[in-house]
Amino acid sequence: MITIIDYGIGNLGSVLNMLKKLGVPAKITSIPEEILKSEKLLLPGVGSFDTAMTRLNESGLFGVINEMVLEKGVPILGICLGMQLIMEGSEEGELPGFGWIKGRAYHFNKRIPFTLKVPHMGWNDVTLTARNSLTKGFDEEIRFYFVHSYFVRVENQAHSMMKCNYGVEFDAAVHKDNIYGAQFHPEKSHKFGMQFLRNFAEIWSCSGPELSLACS
Amino acid sequence: MLRTRVIPCLQLIDQALVKTVKFGKYNYIGDPVNTVRIFNELEVDELCFLDIRATIEKRQPNIKILKEIANECFMPLSYGGGIRDVETALKILSIGFEKIVINTSAVENPELITEIARHSGNQSVIVSIDVKKSFNGNYAVYSHDGSVKTRLNPIEWAKKAESIGAGELLLTSIDRDGTWKGFDLEVIKKITSAVSIPVIANGGAGSINDIRKVVKEANASAVALGSMVVYQQKGMGVLINFPDRLELQKVIN
Predict the structure, then answer these.
(1) Could you tell me the sign of the dihedral formed by the alpha carbons of B114, B115, B117, B118, in that order?
(2) B196: domain range?
(3) Quick one: pLDDT band at residue A204, thresholds 50, 70, 90?
(4) Cis peptide before B243 (omega within 30 of 0)
(5) pLDDT at residue number A206
(6) Among all residues of chain B, which has the CA nearest to that of A124?
(7) Annotated catalytic residue, options A120, A148, A159, A185
(8) Which domains does chain A have, with CATH numbers?
(9) Helix, strand, or coil here: A81?
(10) Would the CB atoms of B1 and A18 count as touching at under 8 Å?
(11) Tens-place pLDDT, residues A132-163
């Protein structure tokens, strides 16, 4: 069972639709007690960094998610803004992120040629920079659908899983231990996104929670 | 590099998928949900749905059909037709569509562009502009599925839409719709050079070469296909299809 964390930001319908199509049990919840019982977490997000962090802080979910990820080692996947939230912070806001992975989000403006439009919106190619459970089944020519104005750069290259180029090279997906992030929208990236979410769903089936680190 | 988007732009009349010629007579194409299953298998990268008669028939968007589409389609989706207020727009976004297309309601109430953008971001608002060339060679903007000529100048209207929150423009040439005669490069070029948001060129696509031209010569950011993806060939029967990906890439990327 994948728990999709609802903190009042973004549309969760598409993610749930794709998991349903894959036959992966999933539910959307904002209740801390339910999140504490989760086997696997998915942190979506659309909107601005501080709004998201404020909602997580005020609802008490920040502490709950932190406990699940850091103490219980539950696998988590942050999508789009959700991936930026797992970093230390963003140029978009003042508040700190979860900070599980060292690195920050930066605005595209002034860092890319002015002929390129912001947001970076559409399908773009990515290259794998690491091999792990989430990159299973991906070979050459991988593309995903992106919509974002801020991009992430990890501090330690060991935490980069995929890179993408849009006037500037950035981390399209990140990974450290039980923590995964995707800047793109797997739920809108048909077969590529399905493979990615299926991989995330399957980390679970190869282990119990305590073993998930070993097989990732 | 970002790939140029090639988007099947599908016309609905309530529950039926249709294809018009010059916004006039139309053919019945089929059931939208079955059709999108085929587009799903063809791995198209984006889909746009327009209920072309919702506004003039004073209908609300058919949420049931849209839900079925969203449950089947795992690519970016946009919908337009009969959206007059923010609540309806948000409802459609919440069921799994990324973008809202507004045309008549944007002309009548430009504030709606700003309101939707404020709630869901500029990238969620596509302003659709239907244009027609008059006898004197000037272009005019039409609303109500091409039936009402407005006083708007296409370039001024495009710029205004951008300035008040539109994230993209869907620019349709009424004269070219369903004709397979190629895009109206003249008006598309005028608009793409006047705004910095993406412009989706629509109306007239008949070949891969037309797609190449509108991207290379008129600087369209994205290309919408109608007849080409629902008919076998001009004048032939219904066949849901999509141009060969490699061939497309060769000409546009």
Answers:
(1) positive
(2) 5-252
(3) low
(4) no
(5) 44
(6) B2
(7) A185
(8) 2-215 (3.40.50.880)
(9) helix
(10) no
(11) 999 999 987 899 999 999 999 999 999 999 99
User: Are the Cβ atoms of A13 and B94 closer than 8 angstroms?
Assistant: yes
For chain B, the DSSP string reads -BPPEEEEEEEEETTEEEEESTTSSEEEEE-HHHHHHHHHHTT-S-EEEEETTTTTTTPPP-HHHHHHHHHH--S-EEEESS--SHHHHHHHHHTT--EEEESHHHHH-THHHHHHHHHH-GGGEEEEEEEEE-TTS-EEEEETTTTEE-S--HHHHHHHHHHTT-SEEEEEETTTTTS-S---HHHHHHHHHH-SS-EEEES---SHHHHHHHHHTT--SEEEESHHHHBSSTTS-B------HHHHHHHH-
Catalytic positions of B are 130
Reference A216, options A158, A138, A160, A132; nearest CA is: A132
Task: Specify whether the CB–CB gap between A146 and A163 falls below 8 A.
Answer: no
Interchain pair B40, A147: CB under 8 A: no
- Which residue of chain B is at minimal alpha-carbon distance from A194? B74
Question: What's the CATH code of the domain at B182?
Answer: 3.20.20.70
Residue A150 and residue A108 in contact, taking contact as beta carbons nearer than 8 Å: yes
Task: List pLDDT tens digits, range A118-127.
Answer: 889 899 999 9
Phi-psi region of A181 (alpha: psi -120 to 50; beta: other; left: phi over 0): beta
Chain A with chain B: Cβ pairs closer than 8 A: 68
Shortest CA distance from A127: residue in chain B = B1
If you search the block for the tokens 């070219």, which residue do you land on?
Answer: B176
Write down the pTM of the prediction. Answer: 0.89
Specify the DSSP element, H or E, that contains A56. helix A49-58
Which 8-state DSSP code applies to residue A208?
-
Q: Does A157 touch chain B (CB under 8 A)?
A: no
Of A119, A190, A193, the CB nearest to B123: A119
Whether residue B37 lies within 8 A of chain A, CB to CB, comes out as no
Residues with Cβ within 8 Å of A111's Cβ and at least 6 positions away in sequence, in order, are: A167, A168
Point out the catalytic residue in the list A67, A80, A91, A155. A80
Total domains present in chain B: 1
